[in-house]
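Backbone-to-sequence.
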């Protein structure tokens, strides 16, 4: 009978160790997240609204409201991919969405939303 090579045994040992680590991670208990955990840390300072320049607004205004704060950019490929889904959720399901634009020129952000449609109740940067 042939003995398996040492390299094959080492690879099998590493594979089994990874399986054990992944299984331990799946069964690890963690404290449940509070739904309001993120809202408590929203800043009260005013942000620049792209959809209503000059109108004061802060992210803290979302506190106590069930909503989604979506961080997006016109140059972000993933944002462009998920945009039709956000439009559908906002229009058909009434999901309250607020957009926070990331590192875009305001004109570019607004031009892209004008072309693709805006699912957001407010758009800020």
């Amino acid at each position: 009978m042939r003995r398996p090579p040492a390299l094959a045994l080492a690879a099998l040992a590493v594979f089994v160790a990874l399986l054990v680590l992944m299984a331990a991670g799946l069964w690890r208990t963690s404290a449940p997240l509070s739904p309001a955990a993120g809202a408590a840390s929203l800043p009260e300072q005013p942000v620049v609204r792209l959809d209503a320049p000059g109108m004061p607004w802060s992210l803290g205004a979302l506190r106590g409201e069930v909503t989604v704060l979506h961080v997006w950019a016109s140059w972000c490929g993933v944002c462009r991919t998920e945009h039709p889904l956000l439009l559908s959720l906002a229009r058909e399901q009434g999901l309250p969405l607020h957009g926070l634009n990331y590192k875009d020129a305001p004109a570019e952000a607004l031009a892209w939303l004008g072309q693709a449609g805006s699912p957001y109740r407010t758009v800020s940067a």
